[in-house]
Design goal:
Layout (H helix, E strand, L loop, with lengths): L1 E5 L8 E4 L5 E4 L3 H4 L3 E2 L9 E5 L10 E16 L4 E8 L3
Length: 94
């Protein structure tokens, strides 16, 4: 699992937690909007905007779209139960 943090530009969504397949399973706000979408991993990188696949959300069109959320940090989580990051963290370059 990964916890993906976004730069704060006054948007509601600041972080998401995804499973090994990229499915969003938790976020800081608006679970009803974001949970169930999938992060498009080939385009996931610190400093880049996040791409989400909405095909798992029946109310959306099922496209892969870029969102204006810039990835700040990516943490690999050991266990969802503890929500503690492992030693593997990728931070935004200074």
């Amino acid at each position: 699992m990964k916890k993906i943090h976004f730069e704060d530009h006054q948007q509601d969504l600041l972080w998401i937690i995804v499973d090994k397949n990229g499915l969003i399973i938790e976020c800081n706000l608006q679970n009803f909007v974001w949970c169930g979408m999938t992060v498009y991993f080939p385009k996931l990188a610190v400093g880049e905007m996040v791409w989400l696949d909405s095909s798992t959300k029946s109310r959306l069109n099922g496209d892969i779209n870029r969102y204006n959320f810039v990835v700040k940090k990516i943490e690999n989580l050991k266990d969802m139960g503890t929500n503690q990051p492992s030693t593997s963290t990728i931070d935004q370059p200074s």
